[in-house]
Automatic annotation (TrEMBL):
Any single Pfam family the record assigns to this protein: Trypsin
InterPro entries: Peptidase_S1_PA, Peptidase_S1_PA_chymotrypsin, Peptidase_S1A, Trypsin_dom, TRYPSIN_HIS
GO biological process: proteolysis
Record's keyword terms, sorted: Disulfide bond, Hydrolase, Protease, Serine protease, Signal
Molecular-function annotations in GO: serine-type peptidase activity
Protein name listed in UniProt: Peptidase S1 domain-containing protein
UniProt entry tagged with the keyword Transmembrane: no
Length: 252
């Protein structure tokens, strides 16, 4: 399998559809648990035609951080827990500017994007900002990730936000497991607390949260979601901290 095929299999998230009786591969939390409602008030649902396709986090009242491969026109839903309900806590925005990293080009690296909203969120118990990590993360650190993606790696999408712990794997060990895929210093790897626990289809763009900060962005995994033989790979936020700050400063 080529790197391009791996990328297409694990991270492209388009509108849901069925072809030739098979379900299209997408990038959800598998083997996790339902999050306490609004315990992750920074979580964002990116939706196309009112269908969840990607996650993200609120980093400023008018900016969302997500993955660059989460392409297409989307609306942004903040303050959600159950996506099938119009919760009073929800705030909905359109995107007026998509700002992918300038070096992103349909590859596995630089998979990061900022979205400028058409208004400013009103902060509340259900809608809050998340700080960005600007330091390294030691191997063995227990973090977590969350999303509304596939929960069984079989096209089963939840209504409620799911979460799972994720333990940091050193880049050296991650590289040895991935073999033909180059794991760079701009990526960070993690595995779930057990076999086949981690992110899956629909979780792309969601956060790796370590010590209450956004340390990574869900980017890609192997052919089967959360397979410990190929650790989940996130874009390392600290590697892009200066770029993020530069974009925000240019858009006061």
């Amino acid at each position: 399998m080529t790197i391009h095929q791996i990328f297409m299999w694990t991270v492209l998230v388009s509108a849901l559809k069925v072809t030739d009786g098979r379900k299209d591969p997408k990038v959800g939390i598998v083997g996790g648990r339902e999050a306490v409602p609004h315990s992750r008030p920074y979580m964002v649902s990116l939706q196309s035609q009112r269908q969840h396709i990607c996650g993200g986090v609120l980093v400023r009242e008018d900016f969302v951080l997500t993955a660059a491969h989460c392409t297409g026109r989307v609306r942004v839903v903040l303050g959600a827990h159950n996506l099938s309900e119009e919760e009073n806590s929800q705030q909905i925005f359109d995107v007026v500017r998509y700002i992918p990293h300038p070096l992103y080009a349909d590859t596995l690296e630089n998979d990061i994007m900022l979205l400028k909203l058409n208004g400013r969120a009103t902060l509340s118990p259900a809608v809050q900002l998340i700080p960005l990590m600007n330091s390294s993360i030691a191997g063995g650190t227990v973090c977590s990730t969350a999303g509304w993606g596939d929960i069984y790696d079989n096209y089963t999408l939840p209504d409620n936000l799911q979460e799972v712990n994720a333990t940091i794997v050193s880049n050296r060990k991650c590289s040895s497991r991935w073999r033909e895929v180059k794991i760079t210093q701009r990526m960070v790897c993690a595995t779930g607390p057990g076999a086949f626990q981690g992110f899956c289809s629909g979780d792309s763009g969601g956060p790796l949260v370590c010590n209450g900060m956004s340390a990574g962005i869900v980017s890609f995994s192997g052919q089967k979601c959360a397979n410990p033989s190929t650790p989940d790979v996130y874009t390392r936020v600290s590697s892009y901290y200066q770029w993020i700050q530069k974009v925000l400063s240019k858009n006061p």
